[in-house]
Design a protein that fits this description.
Largest sheet of chain B: 7 strands, mixed
Structural class of chain A: mainly alpha
Radius of gyration of chain A: 20 Å
Pathway (chain A): Cofactor biosynthesis; ubiquinone biosynthesis
Largest interface: A-B, 22 and 22 residues
Strand content of chain B: 15-25%
Distance between the termini of chain B: 26 Å
Membrane topology (chain A): Peripheral membrane protein
Subcellular location (chain A): Mitochondrion inner membrane
Oligomer: heterodimer
Function (chain A): Lyase that catalyzes the C1-decarboxylation of 4-hydroxy-3-methoxy-5-(all-trans-decaprenyl)benzoic acid into 2-methoxy-6-(all-trans-decaprenyl)phenol during ubiquinone biosynthesis.
Number of strands of chain B: 9
Strand order of the largest sheet of chain B: 5-1-4-6-7-9-8
Helix content of chain A: 55-70%
EC number (chain A): 4.1.1.130
Number of helices of chain B: 10
Chain lengths: 265, 253
Amino acid sequence: MATLLRPVFRRLCGLPGLQRPAAEMPLRARSDGAGPLYSHHIPTSPLQKALLAAGSAAMALYNPYRHDMVAVLGETTGHRTLKVLRDQMRRDPEGAQILQERPRISTSTLDLGKLQSLPEGSLGREYLRFLDVNRVSPDTRAPTRFVDDEELAYVIQRYREVHDMLHTLLGMPTNILGEIVVKWFEAVQTGLPMCILGAFFGPIRLGAQSLQVLVSELIPWAVQNGRRAPCVLNLYYERRWEQSLRALREELGITAPPMHVQGLA
Amino acid sequence: MAAPGSCALWSYCGRGWSWAMRGCQLLGLRSSWPGAPLSARLLSQEKRATETHFGFETVSEEEKGGKVYQVFESVAKKYDVMNDMMSLGIHRVWKDLLLWKMRPLPGTQLLDVAGGTGLAWVLGDAEELPFDDDKFDIYTIAFGIRNVTHIDQALQEAHRVLKPGGRFLCLEFSQVNNPLISRLYDLYSFQVIPVLGEVIAGDWKSYQYLVESIRKFPSQEEFKEMIEDAGFHKVTYESLTSGIVAIHSGFKL
């Protein structure tokens, strides 16, 4: 029995990319290519990924302030979906450029002064306003760690950094209701398991009134827009700062929300 | 040693000992930045190129102290919770056994190094203790010596500050003596513990270091020899939980 189970056991506990049977002790930084593939990468076995996925899901539900757990959940469950997203980006001209140039959105890469000077109603100006009003910074996105492919690690990083753009496009604040609406949009757009889980489990913490509004108005609106819009990961936002937000919304087919969601936005 | 709340050691005592502990003079030594003072550092300039281990990584000896410091800064907040989670509360039993072995009496001068949570504090360096010679009756170090850069120096210091007749007691992770349990233990250590660290404390790397540093620590016999080299006599050890931890004991004569 033990001999039958041994190869299964080894696969479950072995590191990705190893040719020979893996030891149960994953070692760090090995010369056979099982070491880190990019900065911050932590190689993990299938068993570790499963445990991380379960643990992070439970912790995120238990303590909604653990945003890092939502990120971990996304990384450990998203491999297949990220491949699909990456392939789809390759097929789109703007998306392919993003994959090639790998732009990042952070306070070090953004020219905040320039964005401030842009006209009212432009994407750049409105994005900056969103950051100010909601008191968020693009630097709070943690780096990817548990994705075992360097290009896919970028894709999920890009998805995370684009999240604030989606808030701006959809006109949703960063309170729990606004986040759930954006999650529904993202779930339809990306198909990432973490977005789907977040979309369904997020509402657990809502009161009856918010829940009613969410289900009857906001979710249908988010889903409709998510379906209609082309993939939002294919937009090179950094080249569109001057574009008017209204024009961009029209281009994507994003309509005004059915009501103003109370919040800071 | 770690424990919740103040008057910490009381909670670890077996029922019979709680009254005995009250009379003891307890001092906890929390390891400060484990670097040597400037003068000592100038003397050891030739040794700068010396390398040592930090878990499974190789680092310079100079670096190790700082890296260990960072690990413990990071884990400090959730130290007790994580210990309970990782060992399923068994660490309390181990610490209880250490205390039982000690059998401290009223008036015993006890120094607990790498104290963790609880106790009254003195800040210092295990490799260079801020105490005079021949001061303490008992020197304990629980889950601390593994992280010291120069274990031999810490042992020598322990010897120095103990009174003649004084006892050295160390509770530390050790080598498992049973092959089946060893495999299960390795599996648990490497597959589960860093995940627990990430989920509970948001810190994978510190707990990866933890399980790696355990593998790097000498075996029961090797550590016994090191303690003897530092001048201790009647050195013995007792393995607990199949050797996952061991309590080493020695006397200064």
